Amino acid sequence: MTTLADLHALMARLGHPVVTAPAPSVARFADGAPYRFEIPSVEGPEVLEAVVAEADLLNVPVHRTSQGSGVMMLSDAEITRMARIGAERGIEINLFLGPRAAWDTGGQAKVTQAVGAAARGNAMVAACVADALRACELGIRSLLVGDLGTLEVLTTMKADGALPSSLVLKTSVLLPLTNGPTATILERLGASTLNVGTDLTVPHLAEIRAATGLPIDLYLEVPDDQGGFVRFYEAVEIVRATAPVYLKMGLRNAPNIYPSGAHLGAVPRELGRERVRRAALVQRLLEQLDPDLAKHPTPAQRPSDLGIPQP
Fold first, then answer.
1. d(CA 89, CA 233)
2. Whole-number Å distance between alpha carbons of 270 and 88
3. How far is residue 249's CA from residue 235's CA, in Å, rounded to a whole number?
4. Which is nearest to 145 in space by CA: 100, 83, 199?
5. What does the pLDDT read at residue 298?
């Protein structure tokens, strides 16, 4: 009879031990920081400007912003403006590759989010590639990828010079990542930074950290359609176990704004400001609960691992 101890020993031999008491991660970002803040749902230049202004007001260090509506929902002028702001401020501007099953004519994505970001058919993969080429031509150096095959295609294009070798490929929370073996697959396919499941325990996260040296991206406050959790008081344990980690500040009780546009008025901007305020609350907690962890070394102005735009 196979015991629990036998199963754990087997997983350890396979290179993916089951973690019960996470050991602190000693890995760090290129500038020595154990964590950074990512502000998601920054859907255009007006939202980005609001986020930057609020970050200055609250003294919150924002290293990365990400967007969910997709490259195809932005004009060249809007992308160029976002790239310029990112370059001036040393912020990675991450844009989603637009075509996805949830917006397509298929039916499966209407009943399950599990395939919402998938590319249905090779033509949709080609459309994602077109988004990537256009964004990079306009100076963007970080893309959000929700489809496994598209990730491999983009990695191939980086290798053959069709896309910049420095391009950051960030996996989407819609591309399920809930264990160490999956993390190794995504890394092997060319991911630069890994968005993990929103409901993972600290031991689960530590198992992923043991499987890969790539940065982990984790929602500390989770949008309602991804679970709606608020994990502020877990921040210290999460950072200790998973560094280097991007702490993503989503919002509960917030409207879904995808695809975004002027028809939503000031809502995306105000949501962006509130996400920065949430980051300030988490920063205060980190400083209170673990002052040493919150003390970053003197930050590099432009860390080498950030996909800062090059307009």
1. 30
2. 23
3. 12
4. 100
5. 61
Distance CA 128, CA 104 (A): 13
Task: Look at 138-142, 242-246, 294-298 and tell me which has the smallest mean pLDDT.
Answer: 294-298
Burial 23-53 (b: 16+ CB within 10 A, else e): eebebebebebbbbbbbbbbbbbbbbbbbbe
3-state secondary structure 58-127: HCCCEEEEECCCCHHHCCHHHHHHHHHHHHHHCCEEEEECCCCHHHCCCCHHHCCHHHCCCCCCHHHHHH
Name, in order, each residue with C-beta under 8 angstroms of 14's C-beta and a sequence gap of 6 or more.
none
CA pair distance 209, 117, nearest whole angstrom = 24
First CA to last CA across the chain, in angstroms? 62
- What is the pLDDT, as a whole number, of residue 227? 85
Query: With DSSP H G I counted as helix, E B as strand and the rest as coil, what are the percentages for the chain, rounded to 5?
Result: 45, 10, 40
Closest CA to 65 of 75, 79, 77, 51: 51
Per DSSP, 194 falls in state E
The CB density around residue 241, as the number of other CB atoms within 10 Å, is 25
d(C-alpha 295, C-alpha 287), whole Å: 8
CA dist., res. 55 & res. 90, Å (int): 13
- Assess contact for 151 and 169: CB atoms under 8 A: yes
Find residue 144's DSSP bridge partners: 96, 170
- The answer to whether 188 and 181 are in contact (CB under 8 A) is no
Query: How far is residue 133's CA from residue 140's CA, in Å, rounded to a whole number?
Result: 10
Q: Is 299 buried (19+), middle (13-18) or exposed (0-12) by CB count in 10 A?
A: middle
* Tokens 């502000």 found at: 39
Token pair listed for 201? 């325990």
Mean pLDDT over residues 67-91, rounded? 97
